[in-house]
């Protein structure tokens, strides 16, 4: 090792990896590491060791291939310019001042925070139906994250950023996390006096869950609607016929189901470790599912007082 370091310091080769490979080849020719001395790779002439393949070195190769003509588009050894990274969030042409992520409190710290219920599940599991029922029973406000994004896309169809997001959603992928969080925050700040809020369809993965907690709050309850893949597909096909949503096309549906399968287990585990999630069998009739959800909400959020009437 000392001899190799001495050789590196002495020669300062342009390609240290190739130099070290040549040194190791010489060690084998000498008969092993016990034959190596501290100055084995140091000589007064400072001649470069021959390449392993016996041919021309990499640098001489580039000298022959890359002409010295100053008009050649890339001069020898010049580095190529860095690749400019494109970001929906940071591109100056796409950003809007009102949508920049800021450090602010969504809820007034001087007032009681509204109860927050998150309803999650696969596409077609009945999140929207059950969320509306919960909101109606307890007098809570209802927010559909998917509907928030679709309305934003429709109202800003000429905006490049939202045109890109529309394409992302149409292919079945998740909308950019910070954009989604910003839309949720802006909506929550419009309804500061609510006793409770039911949020449908968020989060979709652990990263979104962490971002929600960091920027908004920790939810009071997470309702997970477990549904078989076959039932999800049947419901999505039926919904596509009835509503004609752009993200209910066959390709997008398959992609959304795949994303859900990949993200569901770690997301559920994340909320389980916090003791926040309750799972319900959503393959049943929606009224049966809602009955069980109501009992859970009564017990979790209204255990010390009478449940909401009705």
From TrEMBL:
The organism of origin for this protein: Atlantisia rogersi
Function recorded in the entry: Nucleoside monophosphate (NMP) kinase that catalyzes the reversible transfer of the terminal phosphate group between nucleoside triphosphates and monophosphates. Active on AMP and dAMP with ATP as a donor. When GTP is used as phosphate donor, the enzyme phosphorylates AMP, CMP, and to a small extent dCMP. Also displays broad nucleoside diphosphate kinase activity.
Xref: PANTHER family: NUCLEOTIDE KINASE
One Pfam family, short name: ADK
Catalysed reactions, as listed in the record: AMP + ATP = 2 ADP; a ribonucleoside 5'-diphosphate + ATP = a ribonucleoside 5'-triphosphate + ADP; a 2'-deoxyribonucleoside 5'-diphosphate + ATP = a 2'-deoxyribonucleoside 5'-triphosphate + ADP
Keyword Nucleotide-binding belongs to the record: yes
Keyword Cell cycle: no
E.C. no: 2.7.4.3
Name by which UniProt lists this protein: Adenylate kinase isoenzyme 5
Recorded superkingdom: Eukaryota
SUPFAM superfamilies for this protein: P-loop containing nucleoside triphosphate hydrolases
